[in-house]
Design goal:
Elements: H1 2-35, E1 66-67, E2 70-71, E3 77-81, H2 93-96, E4 103-105, E5 116-118, E6 131-134, E7 137-138, E8 158-164, H3 168-172, E9 179-184, E10 194-202, E11 206-217, E12 220-231, E13 240-252, E14 256-270, H4 277-282, E15 293-310, E16 313-331, E17 339-360, E18 364-376, E19 379-385, E20 407-429, E21 433-452, E22 463-481, E23 485-496, H5 500-503, E24 509-510, E25 521-532, E26 538-557, E27 565-586, H6 587-591, E28 597-614, E29 630-640, E30 644-653, E31 656-657, E32 677-678, E33 681-691, E34 696-703, E35 711-715, E36 718-721, E37 726-734
Length: 735
């Protein structure tokens, strides 16, 4: 709570400074006006269209009001520009989101699955309740039916991370707010050939390399990245190997930009297993699943065309297709297991997103667009010999009983179709007011055809097809006041699509009949705040929010049916409300706004009050899982371009329940015991880049400086320790 008090005090000071500064500026302007003769000049029509100038102070922290075909004015946004912070090694998400307010990271030791959540909405497991994108293209395994994150781009591949809250569903569709959108690095623009090479080593056998070449010649540009990373992990069977390439080629003319991008990644990692609380206390480095393995392959090809028909009219079209394979081998339970379950999830997906922007009148802008998406997602399980190395075992004979081996345990054919049309307009009025109405019409269709089910289940085979149509609406208001301050208010609808598991669970006796027909979960977000840069070196953003989540899907026992026979129904509602604030003060920019040196303190704080307001499972009045009362981040950063970069960041998270029942798992005397709450924790990281020459720099840092032993992830009845102290060092060369 000490950290919370510090952050709250800092934000209060910032608010006071900006309001006092604004009032003084307005009084001064009023006095000046009354003392001078006024001369009426000829009227000149002025459009808001500005050159691509990202140097304006507020654009170091938030998105442009009209960012290409995206209207973000009246929506709360945050950005992190990676060139402004030291190099992030080993894809440390805690470092990546150090200056991002409110985004919760449920940490795990193994790379791959990214676990993010926001404002207590949904379990962070595999980021199922957060839309995560790369250049506006979803990174999920299956955007609609299986919205999980198994691979993220390395920080070296991206230039900026954007976080868009309450209207994000009106911009990008499925999943409750927010959207995390990562922007790829662009080719070097001022010469035909340039490059970057990086090599790092660190604790737990970390070895990483990254190389990039790019350039621009005439109308053409290109980029090629290659990356490799391996680690032994902190626990036995915690090793991992990641490799990948990115290729880009683009053609640029006066009125259009066309680019073709390929992203290819492969990840292989061990799974040392989850622990009970007694095991964690006794030895957090022990391994409970010494033979489990995970493999993830992802390949995406994207074609982007950004075309101007006039100075005021732009059309951005993205066409993409890809393949992802999530495979695993899990040793079966028991004192001396002789078999393992081999699982294979495949996803073949295709998408189209076309958005048009037209600027009109005095600063007004209209966007309209459509999105279409299709995915085929076969899901299979096989029972194999315990140490079978096969990643792609193909057994065609169904398992006759749970103890059988070398047979097919499960087989489902699954597919998704999704489409949306949308429109949004920003109207600007005298007095520096703006108004943004939005509408989006969504349609999802899911289909499952099951031919083999696990032999321990008594339900019938799943043969289901469901379709849902979801209209979404939003309104935003705002006003620019004083010197570089802006108020914003936004109320917007969002939704969470029905997934494959909601209509046809492959693992339980959830009814495959039409009575198991839940609707999508609906979300209504309210946010009101103010942000600005009222003084040199100062940025602030504070807001109050409320999010109502209706029709959460809960599992219910079928009346009169044997125990374990269930249906999924829309019986859960939750309410999430609170405060979110951010401040950044650059001491050197306060003295000289054009300085190339920056020394800043930053802090952000999220205060959350979340509660079940309805539940058929008896959860009314409970706190939803993973809803910490506070989430605070603060730190110190120094940057002198091409000389030195340094960052010290601290994250402090309140204790939180890990399941909606708010109950312990077992009792303290039982071996499977896990307390109802994840304990609070505070962790600090430090990192730095030092240029020894204009082209060569040294990299170094320490993650989890105090080597705190803690956990932030509990899933499936087990907890996973977070990463301990990790020291790394390396070097890079630019040419």
């Amino acid at each position: 709570m000490k950290a919370t008090a510090i952050v709250t005090g800092a934000i209060a000071i910032a608010i006071a400074q900006c309001l006092v500064g604004s009032a003084r500026a307005e009084d001064s302007a009023s006095s000046s006006d009354s003392a001078q003769d006024r001369t009426e000049l000829p009227k000149v029509e002025v459009h808001e269209r500005r050159p691509n100038d990202d140097s304006r102070p507020k654009l170091q922290h938030i998105m442009k009001e009209v960012d290409g075909p995206l209207i973000t004015v009246t929506k709360k946004t945050s950005i992190t520009k990676l060139d402004s912070i030291p190099t992030i090694v080993d894809n440390n998400l805690r470092a990546l989101f150090a200056q991002t307010p409110g985004l919760f990271v449920s940490e795990q030791q193994s790379p791959g699955q990214a676990n993010l959540s926001y404002r207590g909405i949904g379990n962070p497991q595999e980021s199922e309740f957060v839309a995560v994108m790369l250049d506006g293209i979803p990174l999920m395994s299956d955007w609609i039916g299986y919205p999980t994150i198994y691979l993220l781009p390395l920080p070296q591949q991206i230039s900026e991370v954007q976080l868009i809250r309450g209207g994000s569903s009106l911009l990008y569709g499925p999943e409750p707010p927010p959207v995390v959108n990562m922007i790829s690095r662009k080719p070097i623009a001022d010469r035909p050939l340039g490059g970057y090479a990086e090599a790092v080593v660190g604790g737990n056998g970390l070895l990483g390399t990254f190389g990039s070449v790019s350039g621009t010649s005439g109308n053409w540009d290109y980029l090629a990245n290659a990356q490799f990373r391996r680690s032994d992990g902190e626990r036995d069977n915690g090793d991992s190997t990641l490799g990948g390439v990115d290729l880009h080629i683009g053609y640029n003319s006066d009125m259009a930009r066309t680019a073709l991008d390929l992203h290819a990644n492969q990840l292989e990692t061990g799974d040392p297993g989850k622990l009970s609380y007694p095991q964690f206390i006794a030895d957090p480095d022990q391994t409970t699943t010494p033979y489990n393995k995970l493999w993830t392959d992802r390949y995406v090809l994207a074609l982007t065309d950004d075309r101007f028909f006039s100075e005021d009219t732009e059309l951005v079209t993205k066409l993409w297709g890809g393949y992802q394979d999530n495979a695993s081998r899990s040793q079966d339970r028991g004192p001396a297991p002789t078999t393992a379950t081999v699982q294979d999830d495949q996803f073949r997906f295709y998408g189209l997103d076309a958005r048009a922007l037209h600027r009109w009148g005095r600063g007004n802008a209209l966007t309209v667009g459509t999105t279409m998406y299709h995915s085929d997602a076969p899901f299979r399980q096989f029972i194999a010999d315990n140490l079978s190395p096969g990643r792609y075992d193909r057994f065609g004979v169904p398992c006759a009983n749970p103890s059988a081996s070398n047979c097919a345990r499960l087989r489902q054919s699954r597919s998704t179709d999704y489409a949306a049309v949308y429109a949004e307009n920003v109207f600007r009025f005298p007095g520096r007011w703006h108004f943004v109405p939005s509408v989006r019409l969504e349609r999802e269709r899911l289909k499952i055809d099951e031919t083999i089910r696990p032999s321990n289940l008594t339900r019938g085979l799943v043969d289901r097809e469901v379709t849902h149509n979801v209209p979404l609406f939003g309104l935003g208001f705002g006003n620019d006041f004083g010197h570089a301050n802006e108020t914003y208010f936004n109320v917007s609808q969002g939704w969470r699509p029905v997934r494959y598991f909601d209509i046809g669970s492959p693992f339980g006796n959830t009814s495959p009949d039409p009575i198991n027909d839940p609707d999508p979960t609906h979300v209504l977000s309210w946010e009101a705040g103010v942000h600005g840069t009222p003084a040199n070196g100062l940025f602030y953003d504070v807001s109050l929010f409320r999010v109502d989540v209706k029709d959460r899907i809960e599992s219910q026992q079928i009346p009169g049916a044997p125990p374990g026979n269930t249906i999924n129904a829309n019986t859960g509602d939750t309410r999430h409300r609170g405060f979110e604030g951010q401040i950044d003060y650059d001491f050197l920019a306060a003295v000289d706004p054009k300085t190339s040196r920056h020394l800043s303190v930053f802090a952000n704080l999220s205060l959350l009050d979340a509660e079940f307001t309805a539940s058929a499972k008896g959860y009314k009045g409970n706190t939803p899982a993973f809803s910490p009362d506070y989430l605070a981040r603060f730190g110190l950063a120094y940057r002198e371009d091409k000389h030195f970069k340094f960052a010290l960041s601290v994250v402090s998270v309140a204790s939180q329940y890990w399941q909606d029942s708010n109950l312990d798992n077992g009792t303290p005397a039982q071996s499977n015991y896990i307390p109802a709450k994840v304990p609070s924790y505070t962790v600090a990281d430090v990192s730095a880049d030092w240029w020894v020459t204009p082209d060569i720099r040294l990299l170094g840092g320490i993650y989890n400086i105090a080597d705190k032993t803690y956990y932030a992830r509990v899933f499936g009845g087990g907890l996973e320790p977070a990463v301990g102290r990790t020291i790394y060092g390396g070097a890079s060369w630019e040419f």
